[in-house]
Amino acid sequence: MFANRPLCSVCESRHEEVDDVGFSNHMDKVHLPHSIRIVRERLPNGLASVQLLLSNNHSILRVIRSQNLALLERILQQGGDPDEMLPFPWNILSASINDACWAVVRFLLQDNNLDRLNMGKCLRQLTFMEVHPMFLATRTRGLELFKRLYELNDWCIPAEVLNYILAAYDIHYIEQILTLTPIPNLLISAPRSNITPLHSILMNPDRIVFDRFFQLFLDQCEALPPTIAHRLPYWLTIEAKIPARPPNLTPFTTAIIYQNPIAARRLADLMGPAGIARPNDPGYTPLYLAARYINIECFKIITGDEPRTIPHTQVTSSAGHVRATQFPNVPDTGPASIDYITPLGGTILHALVRGALEMQHFGKIPKFANDLCRMASFLAQSGADPHCPHPFTHLSPLVEASNLGFADLARAMDGEWKEEEEAESEYLD
325 pairs with which residues across the strands? Predict the structure, then answer.
């Protein structure tokens, strides 16, 4: 019965225990989490992979916290790997920095202790970013400590740490950190997640960070020798796995979900209409994500601004619907078309229903409510099919919107909504 249902990449199951509607809702929550919350709460790029609390049950930790250097020296002289004295993935240096035991940190970083205690291993091995000494140094705002660790790590900032710095801190603190170092290499990606510095500056709520580092990114791409395969197009289309975010985000779709239309416009100018229409590996198109994340500014960037009136009558879409207007950058067929069906999420109109549904859970956002209807109205005028069935629920976006009580959105899909009717939408109550 469920043989055609795709495997859920998170649960590694086809979820035979739920019906098609339930499976659709599950996939939407798993694959497209935290859309409205990103805008409302400005969530950073997520730290949830390791428990940061350390229990006092470990004898070496009690010694560290007491900052008894003589006892610590005797314990370490007895031999054995000091990292094995703490639970994975902690090491003795990261635990000391995390607990602000600065006397112990200074002791561990003395020149005569670096090789003897193998402190270089603590910096070279990155199991989880959250316990890396350089990351913890930025969290404590210890700039001199960061510089010392940077020197000991062969003048290198691990990609994960650099990404977090660029994503989470304001421009003043970032510049304080980076003045301690040479100009960082922005053409790197984190080994496990593929997150790049370009993704990171797009996540930062301080928009000056993007302005400051995007030109540096372009300059570094321009300086690459012709023999290098990974040039500008590669870095503009690389797909990253960002914790608690939709899957396979390119820099452009990162700008979409973080509501950064200025950056999206600059990326679109580099990529062209075909580049910004391309679906990612799971099949989500940037236009689908712009609708799902209620980002009308990026919606217009992708479609080529608002639809233009067609001078001739009886022009029809590929689905046979009469068009009154046409988007400048939207073709009749293919992933860039307004009736393209994403394998997991349905059409762009289905995406608008899911954006409205999620908005119920995060309070009133009048601008987003109006923008949902505006996008649906634009699509309706351009011949989008409101009766196209979802691949799992088999319900059309018009039926879904009506069944959920989203009357304004349903009218917009039918081409009957006018912006002056806005007022308080029912899905904001």
Answer: 309
Give the DSSP H/E element, type plus range, for residue 326: strand 325-326
Strand partners, 342: 346
Asked if domains 1-43+275-429 and 57-156 share a fold, the reply is yes
Name beta bridge partners: 309.
325
What CATH code is assigned to 1-43+275-429?
1.25.40.20
Per-residue pLDDT of the chain (429 residues; tens, 9 = 90+): 555 666 666 666 776 666 666 667 676 766 676 555 555 444 445 444 444 456 666 778 888 889 999 988 888 777 666 666 777 788 888 889 988 899 999 999 988 888 777 777 777 777 778 888 999 998 876 788 998 898 888 888 889 999 999 998 999 989 888 887 778 889 999 988 999 999 999 999 899 999 999 999 999 999 998 888 788 999 999 999 987 788 899 999 999 999 899 999 999 999 988 889 899 998 999 999 999 989 999 999 998 865 555 444 444 444 455 545 556 667 666 777 888 999 888 999 999 998 888 887 766 677 888 999 999 999 998 889 999 999 888 889 999 999 889 999 999 999 888 876 544 444 444
> Residue 369 is which amino acid?
A
- What is the rounded CA–CA span in Å between residue 278 and residue 273? 9
DSSP state of 307: -
CATH of domain 57-156: 1.25.40
Helix (H, G, I), strand (E, B) or coil at 342: strand
Rounded Cα gap, residues 173 and 176, in angstroms:
5
CA–CA dist 249, 317 (Å, integer):
30
Alpha carbons 132 and 98: distance in angstroms, whole number: 10
Distances (CA, A) of 133 to 99, 123, 177, 242, 259: 12, 7, 15, 22, 32
Task: Give the three-state DSSP class for 78.
Answer: coil
* Unique residue bearing structure tokens 């404590």: 140
Confirm if 414 and 398 have CB atoms less than 8 A apart: yes
Tokens of 327: 């988007």
What is the C-alpha separation between 385 and 366, in angstroms, rounded? 26
Amino acid at 410: A
pTM beyond 0.85: the answer is no
Helix, strand, or coil (residue 89): coil
Could you give the CA distance from residue 322 to residue 384 in angstroms, rounded to a whole number?
Answer: 9
Three-state SS string over 138-161 comes to HHCCCHHHHHHHHHHCCCCCCHHH
Query: Domain residues of the chain, as ranges?
Result: 1-43+275-429, 57-156
